[in-house]
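haha ok so turns out i had the wrong file open the whole time. this is the CORRECT one, sorry everyone. sequence first:
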Amino acid sequence: MSCDDVYFMGRALMLARKGHPSPNPRVGAVVVRDGVIIGEGFHERVGMPHAEVNAMKGIDAKGATLYVTLEPCSHHGRTPPCTDAIIKAGIERVVCAMRDPNPKVDGLRLLKEAGITVEAGVLEAEARRLNEAFIRYIDTKRPFTVLKCGMSLDGKIATKTGESKWITSQPSRKRSRLMRENFDAILVGINTVLADDPMLRSGGTKDPKRIILDSALRIPRESNVLSDGNVLVVTTGRADETRLRELRNDGIEVLVCGETEVDLAALLKVLGERGISSLLVEGGSTVHGSFVMAGLVDKVLFFIAPLLIPGSDALSAVGGVGIEQLGDAFRLGTMRVRRFGDDILIEAYPAQRTE
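then structure:
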């Protein structure tokens, strides 16, 4: 691995971050000849041309090196195989950051058989982090689930009266909203809807599907989250049938998932079957606790503000029935810490997972 390889792969990773092609992976590509970039591209949206094709478009790539953040696809999907385009273009060397976890892909072998020099593993850790949702989705067929919230230094998300606006700083809240466009869906509980009446928009170019957990269908029809059809209300067998029909007649999709409480594992299975590969859980306290206790959290994002909210009745970030022994605590492994305004963001994974 040369310094040039690292530099050009870094550029490819920067390009990959521009795309929102879920459930496909985010991929960037750079074409280099004699140390100079002559073409670059990324996979913008699902169904659109892949990064490699965009990078080679309109240039003479014969004899050049292609840097790509993921192993080129070799199968027919919504678009033709990228391996065919690479071979046809006369690319001499292909450097990829990581192999594709999709068992249908065997691109490096095909390129090698065509006489192209292939290398893999340049900035692999960075590439895996970029596509952690895709990797998890391929492995489990359920969405990569991230628990996110803003809290005080002592772990509270609201006062004893329920006041929560605002605990974190404006830079944190802006960053939090922008994070949403990197997810296929965002999930909150009915208590959050009743207390805050959020819109759950991203503030970017793409709004995720809004999922509302409401076991008794208490959601008011005038709620902001029901302002369009980009919403799924998840309820249970104890929901009022008349209310259920009314919402469905108004064009609101309602999914019954569980008898008295929403079956979260079953819900994630359904979401995965619908092609939702990433899910952002934004609470509140009870919902966070339910996901943690069910072992369904793949990553946490906690914005922590420098203030204390006293009171045993103030809502904690992770509520629910709780545990009796420390041995049952939800332990975190790899962590990264960043600062936004006066707040810090802790990004962490369950101890058994270290992406």
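The first strand starts at residue 28 and ends at 33.
again sry for the mixup
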